[in-house]
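Practice problem: predict the structure.
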Amino acid sequence: MDEYGPDVEIPGEDEESAPRRFVREEQQRRLAAAERKLAQLGRVNPLALEEFAALEQRHQFLSEQLTDLANTRKDLLTIIEEIDGKMEAIFRGAFDDTQAAFAEVFPVLFPGGTGSITLTDPDNMLTTGIEVSVKPAGKKIERLSLLSGGERSLAAVALLIAIFKARPSPFYIMDEVEAALDDANLGRLLTTMEDLRESSQLIVITHQKRTMEIADALYGVSMRQDGVSAVVGQRVREEREAKAS
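Answer:
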């Protein structure tokens, strides 16, 4: 008999491989290698199945949430696209109306002059700027920065009134818009205000006497003798009508 014992089939060997003799040193080495691998695996977690099930459920929940977010994002992008389209159409209509109104109002405030507004980037209506070009009578300049202070103020008022005419409102509030105007320009502005008041109510903060003279009512703040401020009101239109009758 051989010292290694009879021929035996080693468990775990490939079934197609031929049986070989049992060698103690070789099996001890295999046992040590297997023990090292088992030690590397660590301790057995008896709750692994429950933890896996919980993680699988969590993964399914997050996947559903991610799908919902993707669908919501798609819907929001569609809504944004529709809103952008409506905004472009509304802005285009408002700009065209304001452009036409500015071309009519500017010659009234600047007799013999011309004014226009253009888009700096017509292909991108949501981010475009607006360029204002004016040319008073007898001057070759077109940029607002080259005008005098009174002319710049009047040109700004012309654009403001053009917006009022393009998109009318029940009332308007103006604060010292005519402060820098001389008598001639002030008269033209008051004529324009008379046109606006036919369809809207104007609330004008002013220190100009001529502006106050065309008002229907005046309101001011006066200091009483005791040092306390008091609001004073006067119906000017009713008094004018009473005197005229």
